Amino acid sequence: MNTLKPDIAIIGGGIVGIATAYYLIESGINCTLIEKDPVGSHASGLAYGSIGASKVQGANYPLALKSVSLHKKLSESLSTHTGIDIQYREKESIRLAFNEKEREFLLSTDSNISNWLEPSQIFSLEPSISKQIIGGIHETKAMDVNTYNLLSALHNAIETKGVQVIHDEVIGINVNSNTSLTLKLKNSAKVMCNKVVISMGPWSNKLSDWINIKLPIIPLKGQILRLSKPGILENCSVSWSGNYANLKADGLIWTGTTEENEGYDESTTTESRDKIMLSAIKMIPEIKNAKIVKQTACLRPMSPDNLPIIGSFTDYPQIYIGTGGLRSGITLGPAIGKVISELILQKSTDIDMTHFKPDRFE
Questions:
Q1: High-pLDDT (> 90) share of the chain, %
Q2: Is the peptide bond before 3 cis (omega within 30 degrees of 0)?
Q3: How many CA atoms lie within 13 A of 8 on its CB side?
Q4: Is 52 helix (H, G, I), strand (E, B) or coil?
Q5: How many CA atoms lie within 13 A of 34 on its CB side?
Q6: pLDDT at residue number 40
Q7: Cβ of 132: how many Cβ atoms within 10 Å?
Q8: What whole-number distance in Å separates Cα of residue 190 and Cα of residue 71?
Q9: How far apart are CA 297 and CA 197, in angstroms?
Q10: How far apart are CA 205 and CA 56, in angstroms?
Q11: What is the pLDDT of residue 55?
């Protein structure tokens, strides 16, 4: 078998891996993307697709701000260059409060008091919202995207620009030196490269089996329902206590989600279906008459401190990682890919990386 020799190898074709490849190839870096499954098979392709910095708190906020800007640019360039409509759009949204405690929490996360709406104002925007609410936070430009189309467009773009995509499974890494690695693949040629980027979502913890590092990433399952119920949520999306409902560009109401520690089980369950429906009905009582068109499940990568893991390892400076986006994976994905490309190309980025260092678990 021939040995491939790109400058950079990227393992994992979700939003982080494919965005990393996109920004590296834009800078003229020869890179290869290795993904064992079809595009969009896992969390990135099945995600709800909400984009925004307003719901992202703490250390992730600067990363989210950077990503919101990148998403906007991608929405303008990808459709032009690939012909794929990623269905990026801006839409009003309301975060609902049913009691005073929820009201106080929402106001503590949004310093602009003028964003608070009284029930009558909310009903004039979306009459189907529950009459039990006491108000909510209004956002005029909540963004969302069709995540499967986004990944398809990015995949198309990187191949057009010259990234070689290999559909195979990496089963090991040999560290030859600080500037040389060999990736062992299950079915095809070996890959020798100067640097490698690990972006396998919750499967990124395989790196701990390949080299002597600690990478405690685990999967957190989330399930989503797609409902048919014409005539509601046309003017805004709604959310409450970690749940959401939104009429997407495909004409279906997407609602969810769950947080389940079920290992690598990607199956859907009736229990989660019923739980999601109860939350959706609490927000929008008319949803009780909706038809369930589809139910999906995916595994989000979760670190022990719930923060992303981004950068290279002190003992292995040629190995980079980008994972741990949890429920903000689509929001943060382009920025994580961009930051990794910046660290590889110029060893610096405009984001404070203190909280995201891969070595923090050692």
A1: 89
A2: no
A3: 29
A4: coil
A5: 26
A6: 86
A7: 12
A8: 34
A9: 26
A10: 25
A11: 72
Q: 287-327: per-residue pLDDT in tens? A: 999 999 999 999 999 999 999 999 999 999 999 999 999 99
Among 15, 18, 68, 17, CA closest to 45: 15
pLDDT in tens, 121-145: 999 999 999 999 999 999 988 899 9
Residue 158 φ then ψ, to 5°: -70, -35
- Which one of 3.40.50.300, 2.130.10.10, 3.30.9.10, 3.40.50.2000 gives the CATH number of domain 91-142+218-302? 3.30.9.10
In Å, how far are 175, 182, 358 from 178, measured between CA atoms? Answer: 8, 12, 17
DSSP 145-199: --HHHHHHHHHHHHHHHT-EEE---EEEEEEEETTEEEEEESSS--EEESEEEE-
Specify whether domain 8-83+147-217+304-361 bears CATH 2.30.30.100: no
List the structure tokens of 309.
């893991």
320 forms beta bridges with 197, 312
- Tokens read off for 323: 């994972």
| Residues listed for the chain | 362
